[in-house]
């Protein structure tokens, strides 16, 4: 009954990349919006938004994504709020990514020299214009490399969504492995696929970091 | 969900494993297949609704049921007392026998011989419970996430013993030849279809289905297809 | 329009427990040019930063161009548009060209159309004698050029008052002169100016009044020839001895 | 609706707490060893020796761009084929060290490169050798500069360690899974596990803050 | 011990294609005090950095204290211990107290026991007139104090030669004097010194010779009164006009 590892299996694993990509895209989009909000709140003048954002980050950086996914999907259902798995994944991944991106971007915003903000204030620019035209564009340059770096972790992290039923790359590998008992072949393929997805991003991050270092030391 | 909800929806959502051959597997096109899949389809026909199969995993199959994400589990779920406290089981629809297997060179004939040995099982599986119940002090029970990992531990030499079902072991033998043999039986284990507590009407219908499928030969036929023999007597006769 | 550009009355400013400005009284007439000097940490920067509310004050009154700066509110924004500021470290926006640096604030806060804003910017870049640098990025300019861009950028808001905080102290000796020349030009045109600097030549050449601060207090205040020729305060005498 | 029943969890809280202790121990050892690997990796990467740099690059990129699950799998199931058979707990530790070492290498390299050239020149002008410069001049400020990234990577490591149950290593997550297998009180267990992980993360943050105060609080230059 | 502290013969230095030092010939007698000035980018820093091999050279010979600096090797380490250097930006180690900054190199390279190293350090801190700052961190000191620590740190290695690269140009005007006074003290004691600076008062007061560089070449070289009073080179005349 043990099946041979066949081309159909490879195809199955490759097509599971679809879910990995969809989940990553959702997480990243949600996280980008949430992360910006968190970062702005974390660098705000008022104490209250700063506290709330800090608490948010502490909770969602301090607990495993696996548990977050489990509690959102099964937990809400148990409380009488059944939720679509995709929505659950979107919620949990967004919260997770918002916390991490928020923290990365806060660092970038704070790394913009205070003189820049002061100059903008002295020119009487409003908070919005100041952020939009002066601070964020400069923060963006500092943030791109770590952001892309996080994206790589996120892509790998979506494998945890298998706990709520997504047959993405890692899960597809497990399923095929259970039928074929060829772990090295199967997980070798899985690892190679992740590498193909992530390596270009890592290169990009490194390239941007190098370019930025040049720009700074110029 | 209870019977009304299933009938209203026109579909019964069935949780099944897809990584537990030959009960639950994926066919070459990636669709769920296997003994459980055929049973699930038959159940759907009996209820007069569409059977929608939801792939679940060993560790999360019960949460799926309890949180209402599926209506029933046809997921090779062995009937045990602890589980019966959480879910309601139908009459047995399948069964496997569980034993301890291991390196052919090892002389072990009874649970006492396990002391000082390391032994792999799939976490939360029937063989996990079975082994844990009889293993003496000093047995190193290593719990893996699924049978495949446990088997891999055996094959790579990380452990020399494994608690496994006869079904999976026969597959192992096809690759490993006579490197491993059976040491002693643990138990035979019957499996039931599970519903969430309180779904009494649904459970009644499921039991009716199991009775009918046993008597009209449907289960024998499916068992023959996947395991090469008719439904064993210990399943037929179990209550 | 009043005749007084800036009036400060009994202004006190604390950083935590540290008393940075102590009962400051200062009146600046329209068109007046004032140089502020004093040892490091004496509160010079703090003083001029309170004038466009980069630093809030704890007590006292500041009236700029007839508008009282009560904490927050509309007034502050209005006053800031009328007060240009040039920092020691330039603080140009590094991701924008010189021209973009100059047009950003007029376009965003005064809602001036781009074409017009650019025309104004070019005019002021001409004025500070670097029209040809308009399309470069700050990092491509020398320190002296950067500081002149900073001056042009402030002028583009057509401020009535200019504040300078040690505008030449981050520059190489050779570049100091370029910037001082630009500032002397401005002074000649009657711009109200407050300038923190230790360039005594500049003070002698253009200042109407020189102010000496020490430990948050205005210790001496006089016309330049009196100030340098006949200092009263002992700390000031010492100070002048040191930097000469 | 589901009836929550925390009895099975609290009745077995000692098991979970023991699991939490295992996670703490595993993570702490992985952090210390991982830091050593990271420093060595960063030194190799910033060294002038080309093959060494190239080798470190390969290590870092392979590890950072493949999932931890696959890495731990290969270490536990694959190494026996090469004659290296590690116990589950050792394999878990090795996998974590290898993993965090790759991330740490990049982080610490960035820290080293953030040290102004003038610092190194001052060291050279004083006649210090390269090793002395690294040890006395570069290391502390470099670690201080990247301390936040490093510690958040460590927290991430602690959370990642929950995966080690796949090779039957013991930790908090596997204690939870075992309890789950016995009681099937999944929601209750997961909720408590999440809280325990949160408390561990909080504990580690506090520890890291204390370490920072002890070793890295010299006044920053203005 | 030779009578010549430093001998440079036909030294050439390139940064890539850029010719930073062109055929430099320079001989410094023991105890001589030399001031180097010149426009930005003329190669002043490069020149003094070649002397303790912070910059390798492409051709020519440099002999320091009788030891020839061939590329790398033992010689370089030995020479660096004999040559103290003070940078424009201080480059104190921020994670060490003033005292630790001073004892690090003697303990690590000369293997002097801590007690003895600390005694020496305190002596030199006294000499630069900040003994009371020994236990502070660099960030807690003013710029002038930091630079004096940098001088003390270099002195703790008991160097025969001191190199200064614009040691006062990052300082506030008031602090310049503190540092210059310290340097004048050193000069009086007969230390061999090479100093890049634009402080003309200092040059007049202590220099035996003033050197003017332009585009990597030593253009003029003279005793201070001749150098300032009667400059020959046109570029130098211009330069003196600008910085005066
Ligand atoms: N944000 C702040 N928090 C606390 N203290 C501050 C702050 N800014 C300035 N100070 C303190 O207030 C005093 C006055 O500072 P200020 O910058 O106004 O001095 P200054 O006269 O401009 O000095 P310098 O010539 O060095 O620029 C100093 O003692 C300084 O340490
Ligand atoms: N690492 C380097 N790579 C390339 N060019 C360099 C490098 N360091 C210096 N240069 C160039 O060499 C020339 C001489 O530089 P150097 O720093 O010696 O000048 P300087 O006289 O000290 O100037 P300043 O007064 O600005 O300190 C300059 O044109 C500079 O751009
Ligand atoms: Mg100031
Ligand atoms: Mg220089």
Automatic annotation (TrEMBL), chain A:
Residues 17-205 form the ABC transmembrane type-1 domain. It is a multi-pass membrane protein. Keywords: Cell membrane, Membrane, Plasmid, Transmembrane, Transmembrane helix, Transport. One of its GO terms (molecular function) is transmembrane transporter activity. The chain crosses the membrane at residues 20-40, 184-205. One of its GO terms (cellular component) is ATP-binding cassette (ABC) transporter complex. InterPro entries: AA_ABC_transptr_permease_3TM (IPR010065), ArtM/GltK/GlnP/TcyL/YhdX-like (IPR043429), MetI-like (IPR000515), MetI-like_sf (IPR035906). It is found in: Cell inner membrane; Cell membrane. The keyword Transport applies. Gene3D superfamilies: MetI-like. It comes from the Bacteria. One of its GO terms (biological process) is amino acid transport. Its main location: membrane. Belongs to the binding-protein-dependent transport system permease family. HisMQ subfamily. This is Amino acid ABC transporter membrane protein 2 (PAAT family). It comes from Paracoccus pantotrophus.
Automatic annotation (TrEMBL), chains C, E:
PANTHER family: AMINO ACID IMPORT ATP-BINDING PROTEIN, PHOSPHONATES IMPORT ATP-BINDING PROTEIN PHNC. Keywords: ATP-binding, Nucleotide-binding, Plasmid, Transport. This is Amino acid ABC transporter ATP-binding protein. The keyword Phosphoprotein does not apply. Residues 6-240 form the ABC transporter domain. It comes from the Bacteria. SUPFAM superfamilies: P-loop containing nucleoside triphosphate hydrolases (SSF52540). Belongs to the ABC transporter superfamily. SMART domains: AAA (SM00382). Transmembrane segments: none annotated. GO terms for molecular function: ABC-type amino acid transporter activity; ATP binding; ATP hydrolysis activity. Pfam families: ABC_tran. The lineage of its organism: Bacteria, Pseudomonadati, Pseudomonadota, Alphaproteobacteria, Rhodobacterales.
From TrEMBL, chain D:
GO terms for molecular function: transmembrane transporter activity. It is a multi-pass membrane protein. The chain crosses the membrane at residues 20-44, 65-84, 154-177, 189-211. Residues 20-208 form the ABC transmembrane type-1 domain. One of its GO terms (biological process) is amino acid transport. It is found in: Cell inner membrane; Cell membrane. Keywords: Cell membrane, Membrane, Plasmid, Transmembrane, Transmembrane helix, Transport. Its main location: membrane. Pfam families: BPD_transp_1. GO terms for cellular component: ATP-binding cassette (ABC) transporter complex. InterPro entries: AA_ABC_transptr_permease_3TM, ArtM/GltK/GlnP/TcyL/YhdX-like, MetI-like, MetI-like_sf. Belongs to the binding-protein-dependent transport system permease family. HisMQ subfamily. This is Amino acid ABC transporter membrane protein 1 (PAAT family). It comes from Paracoccus pantotrophus.
């Amino acid at each position: 009954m043990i099946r041979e590892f066949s081309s159909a299996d490879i195809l199955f694993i490759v097509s599971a990349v679809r879910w990995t990509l969809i989940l990553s895209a959702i997480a990243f989009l949600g996280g980008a919006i949430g992360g910006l909000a968190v970062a702005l709140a974390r660098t705000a003048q008022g104490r209250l938004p700063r506290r709330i954002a800090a608490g948010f980050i502490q909770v969602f950086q301090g607990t495993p994504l696996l548990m977050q996914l489990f509690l959102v999907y099964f937990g809400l259902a148990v409380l009488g709020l059944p939720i679509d798995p995709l929505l659950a994944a979107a919620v949990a991944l967004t919260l997770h990514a918002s916390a991490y991106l928020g923290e990365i971007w806060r660092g970038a915003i704070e790394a913009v020299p205070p003189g820049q903000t002061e100059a903008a204030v002295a020119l009487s620019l409003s908070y919005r214009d100041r952020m939009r035209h002066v601070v964020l564009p400069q923060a963006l340059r500092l943030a791109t490399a770590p952001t892309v770096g996080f994206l790589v972790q996120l892509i790998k992290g979506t494998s945890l969504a298998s706990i709520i039923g997504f047959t993405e790359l890692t899960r597809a590998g497990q399923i095929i492995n259970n039928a074929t008992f060829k772990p090295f072949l199967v997980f070798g393929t899985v690892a190679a696929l992740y590498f193909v997805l992530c390596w270009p991003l890592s290169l990009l991050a490194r390239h941007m970091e190098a370019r930025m270092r040049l720009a700074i030391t110029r | 969900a209870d019977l009304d909800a299933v009938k209203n929806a026109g579909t019964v959502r069935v949780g099944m494993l897809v990584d537990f051959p030959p009960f639950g597997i994926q066919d070459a096109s990636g669709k769920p297949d296997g003994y459980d899949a055929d049973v699930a389809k038959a159940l759907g026909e009996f209820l007069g609704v569409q059977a929608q199969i939801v792939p679940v995993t060993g560790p999360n199959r019960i949460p799926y049921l309890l949180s209402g994400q599926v209506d029933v589990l046809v997921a090779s779920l062995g009937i045990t007392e602890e589980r019966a406290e959480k879910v309601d089981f139908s009459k047995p629809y399948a069964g496997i026998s569980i034993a301890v297997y291991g390196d052919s060179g090892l002389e072990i004939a009874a649970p006492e011989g396990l002391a000082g040995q390391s032994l792999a099982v799939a976490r939360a599986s029937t063989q996990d419970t079975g082994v844990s119940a009889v293993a003496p002090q000093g047995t190193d029970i290593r719990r893996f996430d699924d049978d495949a990992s446990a088997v891999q531990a055996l094959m790579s030499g990380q452990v020399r013993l494994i608690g496994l079902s006869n079904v999976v072991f026969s597959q192992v033998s096809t690759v490993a030849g006579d490197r491993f043999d059976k040491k002693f039986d643990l138990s035979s284990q019957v499996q039931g279809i599970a519903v969430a507590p309180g779904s009494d009407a649904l459970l009644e219908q499921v039991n009716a289905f199991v009775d009918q499928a046993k008597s009209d030969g449907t289960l024998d036929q499916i068992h023959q297809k996947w395991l090469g023999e008719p439904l064993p007597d210990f399943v037929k006769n179990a209550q | 329009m009043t005749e007084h550009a800036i009036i400060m009355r009994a202004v006190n400013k604390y950083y935590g427990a540290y008393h940075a400005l102590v009962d400051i009284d200062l009146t600046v007439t329209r068109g007046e040019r004032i140089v502020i000097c004093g040892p490091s940490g004496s509160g010079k920067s703090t003083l001029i930063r309170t004038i466009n509310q980069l630093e809030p004050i704890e007590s006292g009154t500041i009236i700029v161009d007839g508008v009282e700066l009560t904490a927050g509110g509309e007034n502050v924004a209005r006053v800031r548009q009328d007060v240009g500021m040039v920092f020691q470290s330039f603080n140009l926006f590094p991701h924008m060209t010189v021209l973009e640096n100059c047009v950003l604030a007029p376009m965003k806060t005064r809602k001036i159309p781009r074409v017009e804003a650019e025309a104004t910017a070019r005019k002021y870049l001409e004025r500070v004698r670097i029209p040809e640098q308009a399309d470069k990025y700050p990092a491509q300019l020398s320190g002296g050029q950067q500081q002149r861009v900073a001056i042009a950028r402030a002028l583009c808001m057509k401020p009535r008052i200019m504040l300078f905080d040690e505008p030449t102290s981050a520059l190489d000796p050779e570049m100091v002169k370029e910037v001082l020349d630009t500032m002397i030009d401005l002074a000649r045109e009657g711009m109200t100016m407050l300038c923190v600097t230790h360039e005594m030549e500049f003070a002698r050449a253009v200042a109407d009044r020189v102010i000496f601060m020490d430990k948050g207090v205005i210790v001496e205040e006089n016309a330049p020839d009196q100030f340098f020729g006949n200092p009263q305060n002992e700390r000031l005498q010492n100070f002048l001895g040191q930097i000469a | 609706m589901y009836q929550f029943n925390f009895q099975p969890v609290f009745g077995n809280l000692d098991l979970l707490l023991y699991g939490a202790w295992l996670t703490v121990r595993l993570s702490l050892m992985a952090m210390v060893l991982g830091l050593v690997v990271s420093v060595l990796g960063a030194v190799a990467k910033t060294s002038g020796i080309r093959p060494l740099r190239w080798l470190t690059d390969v290590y870092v990129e392979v590890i950072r761009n493949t999932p931890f699950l696959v890495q731990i799998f290969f270490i536990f199931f694959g190494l026996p084929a090469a004659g290296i058979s590690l116990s589950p707990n050792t394999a878990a530790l090795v996998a974590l060290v290898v993993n965090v070492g790759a991330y740490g290498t990049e982080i610490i390299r960035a820290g080293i490169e953030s040290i102004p050239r003038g610092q190194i020149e001052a060291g050279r002008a004083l006649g210090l050798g390269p090793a002395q410069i690294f040890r006395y001049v570069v290391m502390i400020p470099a670690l201080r500069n990247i301390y936040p990234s490093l510690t958040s990577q460590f927290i991430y490591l602690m959370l990642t360690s929950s995966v080690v149950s796949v090779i039957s290593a013991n930790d908090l997550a596997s204690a939870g899974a075992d309890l789950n297998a016995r009681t099937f009180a999944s929601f209750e267990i997961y909720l408590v596990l999440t809280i325990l992980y949160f408390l561990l993360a909080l504990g580690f943050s506090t520890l890291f803050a204390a370490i920072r105060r002890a070793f890295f609080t010299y006044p920053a230059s203005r």
